[in-house]
């Protein structure tokens, strides 16, 4: 999957504008989707992406990048966003595709799939990070978008909560690794478990920390 940087050609946005979504809405854009992914860094499990379209009058006080929220606050906002969003979709790319595509391309594919799964077609997609997506929708990559755009923050929460639940389920299959605690990230405990038990089927065997123990 190729990588693309993309900027919406028709739109003009001043760097100083703090509310990016509102700035776009003033240009006549009604349906804006925020998209974000989680799971690029871990040594195991899928990469998960979510896309969210919020109503223009949506208010979620203190909703921000999921990494800055406690698990309890993420669960709270997950319920709020699911209840109030005009549309949302969650998609994942599993370990076999991560191994074949590479983690960046797999992450971009998951985000593209999430946007394409929305039941309401967005007029503009705001993407967390510097990369564009291979989709036929006007798009805007935004560095630290999960801290600057409400819809991207909402997407980051949905993706994070979904993936964490998956890792808890994987923990039940492979309890030796304690995935429920570290969610697949390369903690000292996780690295020691890989060294002791060897990789299991959900480990990313091309990643440092895992590949050294593959036979």
TrEMBL record:
- Please share the entry's free-text remark on the cofactor: Manganese or magnesium. Binds 1 divalent metal ion per monomer in the absence of substrate. May bind a second metal ion after substrate binding.
Question: What name does the UniProt record give this protein?
Answer: Ribonuclease HII
Its biological purpose: Endonuclease that specifically degrades the RNA of RNA-DNA hybrids.
Outline the extent of the RNase H type-2 domain.
30-215
Please name one Pfam family that this protein belongs to.
RNase_HII
Q: Which domain of life is it from?
A: Bacteria
Q: Which GO terms describe its biological process?
A: DNA replication, removal of RNA primer; mismatch repair
InterPro entries in the cross-refs: RNase_HII (IPR022898), RNase_HII/HIII (IPR001352), RNase_HII/HIII_dom (IPR024567), RNaseH-like_sf (IPR012337), RNaseH_sf (IPR036397)
Q: Name one GO cellular component term.
A: ribonuclease H2 complex
Which compartments does it reside in? Cytoplasm
Q: Which SUPFAM superfamilies does the record associate with it?
A: Ribonuclease H-like
Which sites bind a divalent metal cation?
36-37, 128
Gene (UniProt): rnhB
């Amino acid at each position: 999957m190729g990588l693309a940087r993309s900027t919406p050609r028709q739109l003009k946005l001043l760097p100083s504008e703090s509310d990016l979504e509102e700035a776009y809405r003033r240009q006549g854009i009604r349906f804006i989707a925020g998209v974000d992914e989680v799971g690029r860094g871990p040594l195991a499990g899928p990469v998960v992406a979510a896309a969210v379209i919020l109503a223009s009058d949506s208010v979620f006080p203190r909703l921000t990048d999921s990494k800055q929220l406690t698990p309890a606050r993420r669960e709270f906002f997950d319920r709020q966003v699911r209840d109030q969003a005009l549309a949302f979709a969650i998609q994942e790319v599993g370990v076999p595709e991560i191994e074949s595509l590479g983690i960046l391309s797999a992450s971009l594919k998951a985000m593209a799939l999430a946007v394409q799964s929305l039941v309401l077609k967005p007029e503009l997609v705001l993407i967390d990070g510097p990369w564009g997506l291979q989709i036929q929708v006007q798009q805007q990559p935004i560095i630290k978008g999960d801290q600057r755009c409400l819809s991207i923050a909402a997407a980051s929460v949905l993706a994070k909560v979904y993936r964490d639940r998956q890792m808890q389920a994987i923990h039940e299959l492979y309890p030796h690794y304690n995935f429920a605690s570290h969610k697949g990230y390369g903690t000292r405990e996780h690295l020691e478990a890989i060294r002791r038990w060897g990789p299991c089927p959900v480990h990313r065997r091309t990643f440092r920390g895992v590949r050294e123990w593959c036979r």
